Amino acid sequence: MSDAELSLRLIGYYRCAGHGFAMPLYGQSEGANTLYVARASVSGDHAARIVAFEPINVEDQRRLPPGESLVVEVGEPWRDVFLWNDAAYAGTPGQLWVELTPLHPDVEARAPLSLLDLAVQARREEVSKLAGIAFGFMHERFGETRARSWRRQFVRQQAEVALRRALTDQQLDDELFQAIDLSEATPNELTFNLPEELASVCAGEQVQALIASVSQLAAFLGASLAPLPIEAGVPAIVLRRSARPAPLVTPAATLSKDASILIVADGKRARDIVRHLKSGSEGEQDLAKPDWEIFSGGTADFLSPSETRARSVIALVLGEDEDAPARPSAQVEQFLERQAAEGALILLVPAPRATRPSALFTPGGGQRLPFAHAILDTTIARSPFWWGNIKRSADRRISDVLQLAVGAACSQVVRRELLESRPEEALPILSVGIVTYPSDRTPRKDVPDSLLLGSEASYVAGDPKRSDPSVLFSVRINPDEVDGNRHGTQIIVEGRRRENRFAEFAGSVIAPLFGRNNRRSTGLRGRLELIRDLPGEIRETMYAPNYVAAFMISDDTRSLRLAVTAETPSLATVEQADRLGWTIARYTDSATLRRLSEGAEAATTFPDEILMGSIQSNEINRSLATRGVDQRDVVRVSYDLLSEWLDGVPATQRVAARRNARPLRSATRPYGESESDHLLLREYVLSSDPAAQRLLSLITSHGKASPFRQMKRSADLLRCWTPPSPEFRRFAIVDGGVPGIVLELRPEEVPLQDLFVIDGDYAVPALFRSRVFAVWARATLPAASSWMARFSVANTFGGFPIADIFRIVGQEGSLAALVADGGPSRLGELAEEVGQHIERSLASLPSGSWKQAHRPSENLPAMQSLNDLVLHAYGLPVDATDIQILRRLQEMNAAFGRGSP
Amino acid sequence: VAVMKRRTSGEMNCSLRGRANAALKSFYLVHVTAVGVAREIIRAGQIEARACKTLDANLAYFFALRPAYKLRDSDQKNDILDFFPFVFLVNTDNLGAPYHVYPFDTGGALEGAFDEGASPAIFLEDYALEETLQAVGHHIAWAFGTPADYYDGKLKSSFGKDIPDWDSGPKTFAKIARLASVGSNRPDRRASAIEVAYARHVPLSDVKFAVLPYQFLEDPHGPNTDMIDRLTAAGVAWETYQWRPNRAPADFHSEINRLVREHLVTSGQL
Predict the structure, then answer these.
(1) Which residue of A has its CA nearest to B257?
(2) Among B146, B144, B208, B132, which residue's Cα sits nearest to residue B180?
(3) Beta bridge partners of A678
(4) How far apart are CA B256 and CA A439, in angstroms?
(5) Alpha carbons A79 and A56: distance in angstroms, whole number
(6) Mutation for testing the B interface, residue in A1, A2, A5, A16 having most B CBs under 10 Å
């Protein structure tokens, strides 16, 4: 199973009948040709998890409508596809039950067996009623004998699933479950006939409880189920399931059979990370890792005195939260000391905060934890030398590191190194990573072999590494030799001394950008010199002043003094650096570093990754902006379909019907096109209006799913659908666009979710196109490397202070509007002039570069004057730097909290 | 490349023929197909003989008594047929002589499914039984003893031991057939399922029993259009199995086996 097959999209289904459950089909993308089916952890159990995807040949498959596919990962709950009236609904049984609620009476009347099935899988109490209806249906349609036979099979299947679920950990052979038989010698009395081996293990209370729920189902169907025949005495020899490949990618490596692994998460950050290991289920043992125990909700259970089992590996994940205590509780420490004495290998796993380095890695830190054997380097997850899948989020990457390390820690070689030949002086850092063979196709950055495992916490340069005194040991484990399934990879495990080599690390991060060898760059390129004398004033403002590297980069004409930090710099640090002629950037901030290397004016601006502290969000400001509608909340029809529909509507009703369809606007199109898709409200499409009913049948006949879905954001929909008061215009701001891209919406136009709606007069384009908003928007964008930049209503708009010349006024409906109030009269003229300039650029540029047309150069006289006016309104000089603007905005924002916005 | 190949020259040496004699007893042929194809069979009113590339003829394939089925190819992918089987049991009284009878699935054999037992010196045609329905009874009596043991894939305990080594045809057949037996590492029931092919369409009126997913019990689109009514109209008895999207195919295959077995026992064939 490759990494890519761990996460697929549910894109279609194969149907057996035209209604009820169908078989979900998965693919890499919506148009994928290779299809997969999911395998459930418990055969037949809709509450089970997905343990694998397997390729399948299907000719007659149907696809879900575009945009409705679901991303599903191995480890997530089973997803179903349920068909009704030619529409396919996808989700967990619980979600389907809720989604289909309006249709229940219809399904009940025409397909009661399918509805009962859904109710049973969704574990609804309605089963009690539906069971009777289903049995009645069978009885009426096919007679007593058939109805009883159907009932027997149905109950038998549920019993089989219940037993499989209850006996998961016993690893019994499938044939035993297949051999479960249910007989009905006397009418309405069902009796189990279990294979002997199965009966002998069914004594547990859990099994009995599960079977009790099945007998309840039988009772609802009008039959009694005799209790399980339990065999007392010595259990018979039980057939065990034959060996199967492990369903999850686990570095099973040299994990011996009796190895037991305990993972303890301490703190919220730690729980966030560990969550990815267990794929979301509390308490439930994951099939894939029968030997892993994970405690994340409190630590009481494993600390109970009765718990004396010795573990082979214990990973203590320490969350470095805001208010986390410096070390685990005394009880936990005692437990770990006890376990260490019995031979357990104890790993400390720091879960560092996103914005700063972990305290544990500093030489001397973590010294007071004598029971530990190594500290796992989790910061590799945010290093540019990250070895794993670059598409994963930071938390998932850390969980990948943890999983790999725990697997590696079961290897005898690693255990011996850490437990026996451990150096006296200090706790070592454990670095783990994966090297790939060329056959591996996971997207990874190109990492030269010698730089592998370089992070802010631990760095070893040079080749061969063995000559480096920092390296205590270095082993490669080949998982192919055992039955791991990371084909084409090797695990590298290194023990390293705890030393601060951040400067060397930072140097190797920026060298490719500024070094002479970078032939692609046309900007600053030349001598890269590490200097020792970063001014103390800058260090004083930092959280980790020892984790900063100062460089002097110079070529023949220019020079740049660059400080690379391990923490996200605060505004105070940036200001101090700016004052002293330094530029500062975190090593992860690749966008800023690239800009600098391309020769951008370094001074006066701030890096993309900047620590803003807590942003006060103001209720009034927040009410100004609304995110555009979620496509799933409305019915989207193409222009062709709209015309086809209107042609069929009687002429007298056509105008009224047409009014229900509104053109959509989205940031993926250059401008509103009259022939673009249209949106309709669901309430209308589902109403009894004859024109609406005609439309619904047209939509269904075009193969689109009928619009019964849970509403996602109905409030936003209402606001976007309600037109602004006649005195205001409606604008849309493109999500994530810096500087702001402001579009004026035409009457009736409804924006999609990649736009934010703001009503008002010329104040809206004047303010949101200005440099001031651009500075704020850039500083508050989340530092998301793996996903597109996004504004948020709370931070980008709710936290943005509005200068006095603007005013927020209320409107009918809850959307507020922004108006210019008492500002200079030139403001309106300038905003108009900039607007006209944009119109002209739009006409002259190809439509693909429409976003560029919306960003007039700051040198455009009208734009310059506009910026000056806005800066003045914020009490800033016209030559204010970005840093000054940001400082001013931050002060104004802080005043929100003190009640004077 | 599969070990077993078709003969390209020389006379076929049908060494499995005439190994035992048994009284002719009526038995059902089993045709397993995917739900989509079954719908077409019921609509058209016949099991159609389709072009078979390997044997270059239009053939309708069956297995004697057993709900085993042919897979189109033996690559790594699962087939939809695995997940949605639909079983027809056909009465042989009106069918006449078959086109061919083989003691295993010929498609599987030519794709290498039985390579563990096959020998390169014995060609496919050498395993052919007589082109009569009696041949099935003879073969069962020789290798399995009773139809019930044949159904369960249990070879006679002494089977193969008394075949001398020079009698290579039966000797290799015994090796192949053991692949289907209970003790095998990779039990493949096709390895000992007797394949009977007809070079003609088989009308629905000869079908006596069907096993289909329970979803067909309902018909939301109104009466008299669905499968069950058509089956009933054609005089076909039927049973349903509990199809579920997340049930491993092996699980409902065993359920189907049980249903077919029950029916065969009731009709006195096992």
Answers:
(1) A178
(2) B144
(3) A637, A663
(4) 42
(5) 17
(6) A16
pLDDT tens track for A338-358: 888 888 888 989 988 888 888
SS3 B216: helix
User: Distance between CA atoms of A272 and A713, rounded to whole angstroms?
Assistant: 26
| ipTM confidence score | 0.90
* Ramachandran quadrant class, A594 (left: phi over 0; alpha: psi -120 to 50; beta: rest): alpha
Higher pLDDT, A268 or A509: A509
Q: How far is B5 from chain A (nearest CA, A)?
A: 26
Query: Counting one residue from A and one from B, how many pairs have CB atoms under 8 Å apart?
Result: 111
Residues of chain A with Cβ-Cβ distance to B246 below 8 Å are 38-40, 43-46, 48, 78
- Among A120-134, A310-324, A877-891, which stretch is predicted with the lowest mean pLDDT? A310-324
Q: Do A150 and B240 touch (CB under 8 A)?
A: yes
Check if the beta carbon of residue A478 is closer than 8 Å to that of residue A557. Answer: no
CA-nearest residue of chain A to B34? A16
Number of Cβ atoms within 10 Å of the Cβ of B21: 10
Smallest CA-to-CA distance from A834 within A891, A885, A765 is with A765
Nearest to B8 by CA among B109, B124, B118: B124
Q: Which residues in chain B have Cβ-Cβ distances shorter than 8 Å to A45?
A: 246
Strand partners, A885: none
- Best to test chain A binding among B37, B240, B246, B259 (most A CBs inside 10 Å): B246
Other beta carbons less than 10 A from residue B262's beta carbon: 12
Neighbours of B107 (CB within 10 A): 21
- The reply to whether residue B80 touches residue A57, judged by beta carbons under 8 angstroms, is yes
| 8 Å CB contact between B29 and B84 | no
- Distance CA(A695)–CA(A687), nearest Å, equals 11
Please give the Cα distance from A106 to A83 (Å, whole number).
13
Spatial separation of the C-alpha atoms in residues B257 and B253, rounded to whole Å: 6
State yes or no: pLDDT of A26 exceeds 90: yes
List CB contacts (< 8 A) between A113 and chain B. 214-215, 217-218
Q: Compute φ and ψ for A57, nearest 5 degrees.
A: -90, 120
> Angle, to 10 degrees, between the axis of helix A394-409 and the axis of helix A268-278?
70
SS (H, E, C) A114-172: HHHHHHHHCCCCCHHHHHHHHHHHHHHHHCHHHHHHHHHHHHHHHHHHHHHHHCHHHCE
pTM (two decimals): 0.54
- Indicate if the pLDDT at residue B23 is higher than 80: no
Cβ neighbours of A60 in B, within 8 Å: 36, 80
Substitution target from B42, B83, B218, B240 for chain A, most A beta carbons within 10 A: B218
Question: Residue A296: which of A311, A323, A322, A316 has the closest Cα?
Answer: A316
Q: Please, what's the b/e burial string for A97-122 (b: 16 or more CB within 10 A of its CB; e: otherwise)?
A: bebbeebeeebbebbbbbbbbbbbbb
Partner residues linked to A27 by β-bridges: A9
Q: Of A82, A226, A223, A84, which Cα lies nearest the Cα of A154? A: A223
User: What distance in Å separates residue A316's CA from the closest CA in chain B?
Assistant: 36
Mean pLDDT (whole number) for A211-232 = 79
| Candidate from B77, B215, B244 with C-beta closest to A44 | B244
Residue A180: burial class (beta carbons within 10 Å; 0-12, 13-18, 19+): middle
Q: Choose the closest CB to B78 out of A37, A46, A157.
A: A37
